[in-house]
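Ops channel
N.P.: pipeline sanity check, posting one input/output pair.
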């Protein structure tokens, strides 16, 4: 019978012998590590007094003027990117379906709820006027250039 004691058993050696070493290349993306760190967020809040905001407001539009396949695919990709930029709680509300989100935003009766979610400005008159002046194809090209 063997009784393990600190004097006759090397715990470090036993730990190394039974350890799992992962030598594969990690697939974890580290490019957003700094901006996701809670310590960095709190430091910025202490300096500025404001919580982080989304860099771009989610947008949707009328793309009936899209004339060719390339423009249509770019419009769909831009819409998917805009939907994926939304917080995960909001995407889950629409079952991660961009079409359900667009249907919700298109319904006039949901305007107040969109304002409460922070997805719609309270003064839409200036934004609507600028959207009418710019053709949908030009808006897609300008968005793709950014």
């Amino acid at each position: 019978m063997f009784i393990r004691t600190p004097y006759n058993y090397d715990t470090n050696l036993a730990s190394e012998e039974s350890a799992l070493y992962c030598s594969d290349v990690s697939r974890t993306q580290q490019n957003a590590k700094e901006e996701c760190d809670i310590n960095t967020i709190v430091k910025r809040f202490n300096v500025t007094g404001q919580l982080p905001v989304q860099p771009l407001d989610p947008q949707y539009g009328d793309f009936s003027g899209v004339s060719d396949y390339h423009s249509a695919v770019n419009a769909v990709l831009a819409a998917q990117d805009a939907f994926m930029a939304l917080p995960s709680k909001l995407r889950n509300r629409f079952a991660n379906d961009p079409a359900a989100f667009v249907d919700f935003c298109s319904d006039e009766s949901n305007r107040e709820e969109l304002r409460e979610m922070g997805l719609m400005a309270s003064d839409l008159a200036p934004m609507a006027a600028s959207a009418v002046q710019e053709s949908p194809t030009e808006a897609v090209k300008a968005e793709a250039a950014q």
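N.P.: looks fine end to end. Residues 58-123 form one domain.
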